[in-house]
Please model this.
Amino acid sequence: MATSVSVSLEDVPSLELMTELMRRMKCSTKPDKRLILIGPPGSGKGTQSPIIKDEYCLCHLATGDMLRASVAAKTPLGIKAKEAMDKGELVSDDLVIGIIDEAIKKPSCQKGFILDGFPRTVVQAEKLDEMLTKQGTKIDRVLNFAIDDVILEERITGRWIHQSSGRTYHSKFAPSKVPGIDDVTGEPLIQRKDDTAQVLKSRLEAFHRQTEPVIDYYSKKGIVANLPAEKPPKEVTTEVHKILS
Model:
């Protein structure tokens, strides 16, 4: 059985307590928001979500991370999820919804949440709506990171990494001084397996097939906002603020 570790507030350093109190006071005036971020790989969701999370005091729910955390914590849902994974099966939509349901009741999700990487299918979107309706809430906004496949291909297949330091380069937007060589160590750069044109093509096909219908589903509810995801990150952030303010 999983035991929860309780921490006495007396043991929490004053600075951490004060920082959290200040954050909660600042957050108390923010409007509640429940958001979904949708976009193909490389569209910039990962860059924008921490900014949105901090600005609007939301919790960030990445379903893959949440599943792993539930499995590690051996929660009842985590145990079920592990059974499915061990058999090589996909974790059922109902299980994932259950894990989201648990997560959004935490104090950190009091002001709302950002869902990233879920829902991927219309069935998942319907189940999510059903669960939120039972809680008396709903999705407020779906941010669609709209970007042309050709731009994505250029963005992703141009990425190069220095493996040991994590330094990143881009053959067009941020090239190394010598092509294929790290500026600092002179060691060769590598490309991640996911960053090849072939892998991107299959990921994009899956995105268009499964997830674009989800955008249509939410468009009918009038809550989709299209972001010009091909623009520089700062401009996309400005657009996000306009949409959410």
Summary: DSSP finds nine helices and seven strands in the chain.
